[in-house]
């Protein structure tokens, strides 16, 4: 009886340890990817987008465009050399990348198109497959940044950059190379556009009043007053 009770005690301790290990593994960056994987399965676009820092993600997508497209890369280099900003600043007023990506993900997740496309696509820029996100290989960079290696059923590998914002891990970018994903993860979040302060109202300046005319020496002031009176 003592051996049986001791064995059951050890078994109970092992169960607790296994649960603790599973909780640790499922926490942090992996928990964020698991949440996005579940959202893809349920076609829940709101939950999927809640796992992303869309402003930072859009900013990093603009950088990806500059690297992948030669003309845009040339525009980026030219703009920086002329001191007018990179491609993201130049095109910022033309293309609302954040809104565009939000609409694409909203439609793609809710209809299931995004998940179906990423299962078969043969380019390393579509990691949105539930089982691929669940099996991602996480590498943490310090306490607030991480990268995830995601390989889809089509054997295409891409990298996701994650950053801890407050107490929550969010996806802030995707990249073909690990080094680029590390840069995105380690960078600070994209700042919100600063509000333009309203110009202070300038008080109306008092208009100068004409000085009263002084009567000439020896002039009868009463006579001047009676000149404008009509006699009956």
UniProtKB/TrEMBL annotation:
<feature type="region of interest" description="Disordered">
    <location>
        <begin position="185"/>
        <end position="232"/>
    </location>
</feature>
<protein>
    <recommendedName>
        <fullName>Lipoprotein</fullName>
    </recommendedName>
</protein>
<feature type="signal peptide">
    <location>
        <begin position="1"/>
        <end position="32"/>
    </location>
</feature>
<keyword id="KW-0732">Signal</keyword>
<feature type="compositionally biased region" description="Low complexity">
    <location>
        <begin position="185"/>
        <end position="202"/>
    </location>
</feature>
């Amino acid at each position: 009886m003592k051996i049986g009770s001791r064995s059951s005690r050890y078994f109970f301790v092992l169960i607790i340890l296994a649960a603790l290990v599973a909780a640790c593994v499922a926490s942090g960056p992996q928990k964020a990817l698991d949440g996005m994987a579940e959202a893809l399965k349920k076609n829940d676009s709101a939950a999927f987008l809640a796992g992303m820092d869309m402003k930072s993600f859009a900013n990093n997508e603009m950088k990806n465009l500059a690297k992948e497209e030669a003309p845009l890369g040339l525009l980026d280099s030219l703009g920086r050399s002329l001191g007018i900003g990179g491609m993201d600043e130049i095109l910022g007023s033309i293309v609302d990348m954040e809104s565009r990506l939000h609409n694409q993900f909203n439609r793609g997740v809710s209809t299931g198109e995004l998940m179906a496309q990423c299962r078969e696509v043969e380019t390393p820029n579509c990691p949105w497959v539930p089982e691929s996100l669940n099996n991602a290989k996480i590498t943490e960079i310090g306490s607030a940044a991480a990268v995830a290696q995601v390989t889809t059923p089509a054997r295409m590998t891409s990298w996701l950059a994650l950053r801890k914002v407050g107490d929550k891990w969010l996806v802030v970018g995707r990249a073909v190379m690990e080094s680029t994903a590390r840069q995105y993860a380690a960078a600070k979040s994209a700042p919100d556009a600063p509000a333009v302060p309203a110009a202070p109202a300038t008080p109306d300046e008092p208009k100068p009043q004409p000085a009263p005319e002084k009567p000439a020496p020896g002039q009868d002031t009463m006579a001047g007053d009676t000149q404008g009176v009509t006699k009956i």
